[in-house]
Amino acid sequence: MLEKQFYKSFLKRTFNIPVRVNYWDGSSAVYGTGDPQVTITFNKAIPVKAILKNASIALGEAYMDGTITVEGSLQQLITSAYENADSFFHNKKFIHFLPKQGHNEKESMEDVQNHYDIGNDFYRLWLDLTLTYSCAYFESDQDTLEQAQMNKVRHIIRKLHPQRGKTLLDIGCGWGTLMLTAAKEFDLKVVGVTLSKEQYNLVNQRIKDEGLEGVAEVRLQDYRELGDAKFDYITSVGMFEHVGKENLGIYFENVAKYLKNDGVALIHGITRQQGGANNGWLNKWIFPGGYVPGLVENIDHIINSGLQIDDMEPLRRHYQRTTEIWDVNFNKHRAEVQEMFDERFVRMWDLYLQACSASFESGNIDVIQYLLTKGASGRVLPMTRDYMYEK
C-alpha cells in the first residue's frame, strides 16, 4: 500500500499532460485533467529505493528491460516531464546518485570508444550519407537530413571567413565530413583529431579515396597532445560535452593555445542556458563522462582563456528536428539493429534519441555556435554577418 502511495504521489507530480498509468497489480489511474495522451504500464514495481537513488537511471533501465512500456509518444511524455518544474528531472530528492566520471587521457579515450566505436555499420543505418553525428542546419523545410548536414558544415566554415591555403584544426573530427569539405571546397590545409579508432580508420580511407593526401591529415590523438602546433582556424563540433566540467577551462585554453594570433575558431556544442548539468542514465548507458555546460560557464572559460566572442547562434530547434529524423531512421532499421545487438539495446537507443528530442523541444538543453577570435573581437572578420550567408 505504501509503495502504491509513493507511485501515486511521484507520478502525479511528474507530467504536465494527462497520463494513464496501468499498475502491476491490474489497477489503473489517470493523472492530470482530460483524456490521457500517453499510457504507461508498469509490468512490475520498480523498488522505491532505486527511484529515490536516481529516478532517471531507475526509470531508464526499467524501460530498457521492458519493466515499463509506453503507448503513445515517448518524446511527448519526456517533454512534459522536462516542462514540469516539480518532476524528477528537477527535484533533487530524486538525484542522490550519479555515476563517477573521470577525464584523464585514458578515461577520455575509453569513454569516446565506448560510444563511437560501436561500429560504423551501426551509425550508417540511421545517420545520413555524410555520417555527420551532430546538429544539422535546416535552411528550408524541404531540406533532407543530408542537405541540412552539409548546410551546417558550410555554415560553420563560412563563419570563419576562411582564406585559401591557410590551416584548420578540427578537434573531434568525427567521420571527417567537415574537415574534408574545408579541404575540397575552401582550399584549406586540414588536420583532424579523434579518439575513435572507427572514425580514424574511415577518415584515413576517405583521404586516400578522395586524393587529399598532403592537404588533409587525421590523427588518433588526444586534443591536449598537439604540442606547439598553431592553426589559422579551429573548428570543434559536439566535443566540449565530452571533456567534463573540470576540464572545460583546459579545453578552451587549448583552443587559444593552438590558434595563431588573430586566428578564428567556431565551437559548436550542446549548452544549457539554465546552467550546467548531467543526467545519470545518459552518463551510465550512452555518454560515459558526459557533461552539458551552462552558457555562462562557457563564456567565463572563453574569456579567461584570452579568447573573445564575435558571435553566438542558438540552434535548438534544428537539433530537435535532427534527433527526430534520426529516431525515425533508427526505427526503420530496428530489426537490423536488434540483430546486431539485442532488444534491450534497441530500446535503450530509441529512448536516448527520443529523450534528446524532448530535451531540445522543452528548452532543457540548447546547442550554440560560438564564433571566437584570438585578439580583438572580429578584427579579421567583416563588419556585418552578411558574409556568413554568401554561397
List keywords for this structure.
15 helices, 7-stranded mixed sheet, 11 strands, 4-stranded mixed sheet, alpha/beta, 17% strand, elongated, 391 residues
Secondary structure topology:
Layout: H1 2-12, E1 19-22, E2 28-31, E3 38-42, H2 48-53, H3 55-65, E4 68-71, H4 74-83, H5 105-116, H6 120-126, H7 145-159, E5 167-171, H8 177-186, E6 189-194, H9 197-209, E7 216-220, E8 231-237, H10 248-258, E9 259-271, H11 280-285, H12 295-304, E10 308-314, H13 316-332, H14 334-340, H15 343-361, E11 366-373
Parallel strand pairs: 1-3, 5-6, 5-8, 6-7, 8-9
Antiparallel strand pairs: 1-2, 3-4, 9-11, 10-11
Helix pairs in contact: 3-15, 4-15, 7-8, 10-12, 13-15
Can you describe this structure in just a few lines?
This protein has 391 residues and is an alpha/beta fold.
Low-confidence stretches are: none
Q: Which structural category fits the helices and strands?
A: alpha/beta
**What is the C-alpha radius of gyration, as a whole number of Å?**
22 Å
**Secondary structure tally, helices:** 15
Q: How many β-strand runs?
A: 11
Can you list the strand order of the major beta sheet?
7-6-5-8-9-11-10
Largest sheet: 7 strands, mixed
Please state roughly what percent of the residues sit in beta strands, choosing from under 5%, 5-15%, 15-25%, 25-35%, 35-45% or over 45%: 15-25%
- Name the helicity range: 40-55%
> Mean of the pLDDT scores?
92
What pattern of helices and strands is seen along the backbone?
Answer: HEEEHHEHHHHEHEHEEHEHHEHHHE
**Cα distance spanning the termini:** 66 Å
Specify the overall morphology: elongated
